[in-house]
Amino acid sequence: MSVFNNALSQLKRATDQMNLSGSVIEQLKKPERILQLALPVVMDNGEVKVFEGYRVQYSSARGPYKGGIRYHPKTNLDEVKALGFWMVIKCAVVGIPLGGAKGGVTVDPKKLSTSELERLTRAFARQLSLFIGPDKDILAPDVNTTPEIMGWIMDEYSRVVGRQVPGVVTGKPLSLGGSQGRVPATAQGGFYVLTELLSKLKLNPKKLTAAVQGMGNVGGMTAVLLWQAGVKIVAMSDSTTAIYNSKGLNVAEVEKYKKAHGSLAGYKEATKIDNRKLLLLPVDILIPAALENQITKDNAGKIKARIVFEMANGPTTPEADVKLAKKGVVVVPDVLANAGGVTVSYFELVQNLQQYYWDEGEVLAKLKPIMVQAFKHVWERAQQLKIDLRTAAYVVALERIAQAIEARGKY
Ligand code: NAD
Q1: Cβ atoms of 39 and 124 closer than 8 Å
Q2: What's the rounded Cα separation, in Å, for the pair 160 and 174?
Q3: Tell me: the pLDDT tens digits for 16-61?
Q4: Number of Cβ within a 10 Å radius of residue 410
Q5: CB within 10 Å: which end of the chain, N or C, has fewer?
Q6: What is the structure's pLDDT at 411?
Q7: pLDDT at site 295
Q8: Does residue 278 have a pLDDT over 80?
Q9: Backbone dihedral region for residue 386 (phi beyond 0: left; psi -120 to 50: alpha; all else: beta)
Q10: H-helix or E-strand containing 197?
């Protein structure tokens, strides 16, 4: 299943609703630049292993390229292109002055020692150094990449160019110019959007149940925030195990267990269920927060949730979208739901450039109105055009991107 084809289908669905010029649409169908890198790394046993890395700089129409990097054994160019495209849409949905990019290395980081991981990351940053920078392309964390890894990128790039450049990457440790509130930002932004949605649908969070797929930075923190707001979280999962408790999980305990044991396997206060079954549970809110292509034409018909809240990028395929819409399921798209992460990354860049830092209260006070406003624009456009929220988010974003492309004149 090509994830990039999914992204192009979503683009088509939105442009069918609009009057965009053909040349704008053509420009959005292809990334501006694709970098494919061979990354030789000396392993701890002295052997040299060559890893494959990618950076797709998709569009700079609205500003410098921006997007995370992923370390995963299944990462490939098709996936990175799709993720880069979604960053373009996402930055435009929340109205921050950035373009979109994504990167990745095909590797299982769990199989590397810390020093191998550092050498791989430094090789990646070194090879990219001609093409990145605070006014060119800004990197960030994604699946399996952490603040520590962002710190290595900042250090390597700064060494190559011979000056300190914290703004080349966001999601850094605070000691290197990271932003307060960046780690929980994606979850926090999602929480603001979900709160707005529930109020529109007149639903009380204290009477709702949810299942969360993926317990990383995004899924784990989203579960905590919902649980603190009174939502009963009945199921959670990581790549190895899914757990279920109809009476509700103590999310703080589950998080503690995952941190201590590295996985959910063996957690006693719940029943182990099949990972795929988590998606089909009779809950009010289903939160995919792991990887792409989880809700497909094969399982969409069996989804019982009334809200699918996409904290992962690309968890629902276009065919599944159609099936979910027919069933009346409200799908809140990734490009809106998880845009809090890139918004606080933008704040981090701003703080790096001005060398003046905000406290967490200030960061959250700036994040909330952006997320609330983005939800409002998308919701209103969906009502006005009688379309689903994903298509509405694309319409909002594409109008802004088209304006920038046209304002630049003919190339
Ligand atoms: P992460 O590496 O911190 O966590 C990923 C989690 O997903 C892990 O718990 C892993 O065990 C789990 N997982 C993997 N495959 C699974 C499967 N088949 N079933 C259940 N769980 C599975 O990554 P993250 O940063 O939390 O990213 C998760 C998603 O959120 C990705 O789609 C990413 O692109 C998206 N996202 C991340 C950010 C960010 O700021 N980190 C921002 C926006 C979107």
Answers
A1: yes
A2: 22
A3: 999 999 999 999 999 999 999 999 999 999 999 999 999 999 999 9
A4: 5
A5: C
A6: 72
A7: 98
A8: yes
A9: left
A10: helix 185-200
Q: CB of 215 closer than 6 A to ligand 1?
A: yes
- The verdict on 226 and 319 lying in the same domain is yes
Q: Is residue 390 part of a domain?
A: no
pLDDT, the chain, mean: 97
- Number of domains observed in the structure of the chain: 2
**154/111 Cα distance (integer angstroms):** 24
Return the amino acid letter for 350: V
Contact 146, 117 (CB under 8 A): no
Q: Which amino acid is at 162?
A: G
Selected catalytic residue, list 66, 102, 172, 323? 102
Contacts of 45 (CB under 8 A, 6+ apart): none
Among protein residues, the one whose CA lies closest to atom 15 of ligand 1 = 239
Whether the CB of 248 sits within 6 Å of ligand 1: no
CA of 342 to the centre of ligand 1 (A): 15
């927060």: which residue's tokens? Answer: 289
| E strand segments, 4-47 | 33-42
Rounded CA separation 16/239 (Å): 37
Catalytic residue at 102?
yes
Q: 278 and 151 share a domain? A: no
Nearest 5°: phi and psi at 245? Answer: -145, 115
Judge if 31 and 139 occupy the same domain. Answer: yes
- List the one residue out of 56, 52, 54 whose CA is nearest residue 33: 56
Phi, psi of 298 (to 5 degrees): -75, -35
Q: Which structure tokens are listed for 83?
A: 């993720």
Of 307, 332, 357, the domain-final residue: 332
Under 8 Å between Cβ of 275 and 215: no
Query: Nearest C-alpha to atom 40 of ligand 1 is from which residue?
Result: 341
Spatial distance between the Cα atoms of 48 and 166, rounded to a whole number of angstroms: 30
